[in-house]
Amino acid sequence: MNPFFETIKKRIRNNETLFYNSSGNTEAFKLGVKHLQSAEFLGFGDLHQNILYVRHDFTLVDFEQEKLTLILKGSKITLTPLEEL
């Protein structure tokens, strides 16, 4: 398996909540990575007009570039809406 996916699996096993911000990703779903839209419900930020105001640090997964980015409290992120299937 891809080492990037192994890193994600390890972090999820260690109870780290990971988010992604794209229109949809089947790999994210399979691995247990949540869409950034759920961050407000999980207490990681406040969502206003499609912008997430981050209340707690978290890791953002970029599946296209295969990289992890730490998002710090106080950041603002514009959400990419999920596509309907």
Report what the structure shows.
A hairpin with a 4-residue loop joins strand 5 and strand 6 (67-71). This protein has 2 helices and 7 strands, in the order αβαββββββ. The chain has helices spanning 3-13, 26-31; strands at residues 18-20, 34-35, 45-48, 51-54, 58-62, 67-71, 76-78. The model has no long low-confidence stretch (mean pLDDT 91). The radius of gyration is 12 Å and the shape is globular.
Summarize the structure.
This protein has 85 residues and is of the alpha/beta class. Helix content is 20%, strand content 31%.
Topology (SSEs and partners):
Blueprint: H1 3-13, E1 18-20, H2 26-31, E2 34-35, E3 45-48, E4 51-54, E5 58-62, E6 67-71, E7 76-78
Parallel strand pairs: 1-2, 1-5
Antiparallel strand pairs: 3-4, 4-7, 5-6
Count of beta strands: 7
Low-confidence stretches: none
Relative helix content:
10-25%
Strand order of the largest sheet: 2-1-5-6
User: Could you state the order of secondary-structure elements as H and E?
Assistant: HEHEEEEEE
- Our Rg estimate from Cα atoms comes to 12 Å
Note the main sheet. 4 strands, mixed
For this structure, the quaternary state is: single chain
**Structural shape:** globular
- Give the averaged pLDDT, no decimals: 91
Which strand-content bin applies to the residues?
A: 25-35%
Secondary structure tally, helices: 2
| First-last Cα distance | 27 Å
Which class do the helix and strand fractions yield? alpha/beta
